[in-house]
Amino acid sequence: MFTTLGKYILLIRLSFKKPEKFSVYWGEIMREMVSIGIGSMGIISIISVFIGAVATIQVAFQLASPLVPRSIAGSISRDSTILEFSPTISALVLAGRVGSSIASQIGTMRVTEQIDALEIMGVNAPGYLIAPKIFAGIIMVPMLVIYSMVLGILGGYLACAITGDIATTDYVMGLRDGFQPIIIQVALVKAFFYGFIITSICAYQGFYTSGGALEVGQSATTGVVYSCIFILFADLIITSAML
Amino acid sequence: MIEIQDIYKTFGDNEVLKGITATFEAGKNNLIIGGSGSGKTTLLKCIVGLHEPTKGKVIFNGEDFTAMNFEERVPIRKQIGMLFQNSALFDSMTVEENIIFPLNLFTDMSKSEKLDRANFCLERVNLKDKNKLFPSELSGGMKKRVGIARAIAMEPKYLFVDEPNSGLDPKTSIVIDELINELTQEYKITTVIVTHDMNSVMGIGDHIIFLHQGKKAWEGTNKDIAHTDNQELNDFVFASKFTQAAKEKL
C-alpha cells in the first residue's frame, strides 16, 4: 500500500514539472476541458433532473403531516441536492464516464508504446498526459456540479408540477427559506477534490498499466472503483470539516 | 557514435543482459540480432534510456547517458529518433500532427515551416498527400513509414529501430529496409536496428552483433555471417532448410 501511495505521489509530482512548451500544454488543457465538461453534460443533465425530482417526491411523502409546512420539502430538497446529490452522485457518475476514459486512454498509450515514444522524444510524459487532465478535472467538475444543482432543483420543481404532491409555490417558497450560502461553498470544495481524485487516480492506474488489452480494461475498472471509494471518503472528511 | 560498455540488466532474479560491450558507428546500419528472449529489445531499451541498466555505461558521442538525470538527457533525446515495433503513432493525431508534434514542443519554427518539414518528411518516405489521415486508416507498412517520418522530423543523429519488418510482407520489408539504409547513409546517422529478419541482416547489416542468452555471442558484418563457425549463430541464421540450401550454394 505504501509503495502504491509513494508511486502515486511521485507521479503527481512529475506531472506538475515545468512544461516543455506552455502553448502545447494549454491546448491540451482546453481539449480535456471540452472532453470532460461538454462531453459529460448529457449524462449529468439526465441524472440531475431525475434525482432532483425523486428527492422532492420522497421528501413530500415522508413529511406528509398537517403539522409540517409543505414548503419544507423545497428546503430539504434544495439542501440535499446542493450538498450531496449534485456533487457526490455527479462525481460517482463522472468517475465512470471520465475516469474510465482517462485510465483506458493512458493505459492503451502505455501498452502500444506511445508513452515510450513520448519519453524517447524527451517529453515529460506524466506532465503532458496527466497534468492537463487534472487541471481540466478541477475546473470542469465544479462547473458541472453547479450545472447539476440548477437542474436538480428544476427537476424538483417539475416533479411538483407534474405530480401535484406539493404546490409549486410552496416548493419555491421552501427553496428561498433559510438558505445558507455556505452549502454552495461546501459543494464546490467537494467538487474540486472530486475532480482531482477522479483524474489523478485513473491517470495513475492507466500510466502503470502493463500487458495488453485485458490489463487496460482492468486498469479502467480499478481506477473507477478506487475513485468511487476515495470520493466517498473525501465526502465524509469535507462534510465533517466544513459543516 | 554510440558506445555501450559492460551492460547488465536484471529483472528480479532474471539476468537478461550479461555484460554486453559494443560500438555503433555513424553512417552504418548496426544490427542487433538474436532469437526470441535473447535480450535484443531490452538492450535497445537500455541504450535509449527506457530501461536503466543494472550495471554498465551507454555513451553518446563521449557523453555518459547513463549518468544523466531526465533533464540532462533531454538535449541528447532531441537527437534521437525511434521507430517502434508497432509504430507507436499517437492515435488521436493525424499523420501530419504526429510528425509536427516534436517540432511543436522543441522548436520555434513557424507554422508554415513545420508544415514544410512534415511534408518533406512524408515525401521522403513516399507518403505524399497522406497528411490528414489518422493512424487507424493506414496499413502496417504505411504506419512504419509514418513512424520513420516522425523519427527523422527533428533531424536526428541517432536512429533506433525495433523490429522494423514485423508484420510486414517481404516486399514492404525490403522497402522499409532500403528507406532506413538510405536515411542512414544520407544523413550519416548512427542507426541501431533490432531484428530477427534475415533479409534485413543480409541486405543492410553493415555491423551486426548477435545475442545469445543475454550475452554477445558474435560480432561482424553481413559478409562474415555465411562463413562463421559460431554454432549458435549458425543455428539461428540457418535454421530453415531453405537457408541451409542457400548456404551450401555459397
UniProtKB/TrEMBL annotation, chain A:
The chain crosses the membrane at residues 38-61, 134-161, 182-207, 219-238. InterPro entries: Permease_MalE (IPR030802). GO terms for molecular function: phospholipid transporter activity. The keyword Repressor does not apply. GO terms for cellular component: ATP-binding cassette (ABC) transporter complex. Keywords: Membrane, Transmembrane, Transmembrane helix. This is ABC transporter permease. The lineage of its organism: Bacteria, Pseudomonadati, Bacteroidota, Sphingobacteriia, Sphingobacteriales.
From TrEMBL, chain B:
PROSITE patterns: ABC_TRANSPORTER_1, ABC_TRANSPORTER_2. Transmembrane segments: none annotated. GO terms for molecular function: ATP binding; ATP hydrolysis activity. Residues 2-238 form the ABC transporter domain. Keywords: ATP-binding, Nucleotide-binding, Transport. InterPro entries: AAA+_ATPase (IPR003593), ABC_transporter-like_ATP-bd (IPR003439), ABC_transporter-like_CS (IPR017871), P-loop_NTPase (IPR027417). Pfam families: ABC_tran. It comes from the Bacteria. CDD domains: ABC_Org_Solvent_Resistant. This is ATP-binding cassette domain-containing protein.
